[in-house]
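Q: Give me the 3D complex with coenzyme A.
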Amino acid sequence: MIRPVDTNLEYLETERLTLRRFTADDADLLIELDSDPAVMRFLSGGEATAPETVRERHLPSILAGYARWDGDLGLFAAYEKDGGAFAGWFCLRPEPDGPRDEAELGYRLRQASWGRGYATEGSRALLHKGFTELGMRMVWAETMTVNRGSRNVMEKLGMTLTGTLPTPADMARVEGSEHGGVRYEITRSAWERR
Ligand SMILES: CC(C)(COP(=O)(O)OP(=O)(O)OC[C@H]1O[C@@H](n2cnc3c(N)ncnc32)[C@H](O)[C@@H]1OP(=O)(O)O)[C@@H](O)C(=O)NCCC(=O)NCCS
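A: Here is the predicted complex, encoded as structure tokens.
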């Protein structure tokens, strides 16, 4: 899936990735990403997200987020610069009713894009933008205790393990859910000292 660059949608550029805002036409990208059992392993236990859930809930909520946070925060589509393939998404997103200077970092990449440092590269750039341009005070990230890949990204970013989390009821059947989840944080001052 190669897409021409629309400059109005551009959000962030890294050495190897371009991040842009999603549009109402992007349901298929999200549906395809969430249809890979390996991608969904630690999210749903491998089950695909229903296309109508993407169309009726996820995508509208992403677009509403741009309105809420002036296009500065939310979920962003990532493309590989070399070849233009859709790589997945990253997010830097406050709680809907939470303080705007505290945001969750997240990432979900297509399997074809794993193992090349993209999650770390995109997240590093998001932390930089968040702390230098967007007035972030703190960024957090959460994952399942057993999601080693995701935790490695958080640790490479210099985030600190700050707590453990109970497994949400709807994730009880996911492999490793008995080990619960973990939360990592990084404050602006810790990021500046890193
Ligand atoms: C987790 C995920 C984002 C990692 O993306 P990635 O681009 O492959 O990660 P990176 O290449 O930046 O890897 C960062 C570090 O973690 C390691 N790593 C990545 N995936 C790993 C895995 N499955 N197991 C162990 N280590 C892993 C890398 O080797 C690298 O460490 P290194 O530099 O010391 O070699 C990707 O596998 C993914 O999207 N998975 C499905 C969705 C998901 O689980 N998202 C997180 C939900 S909280």
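A quick observation: The helical segments are 27-33, 51-68, 118-132, 148-156, 188-193.
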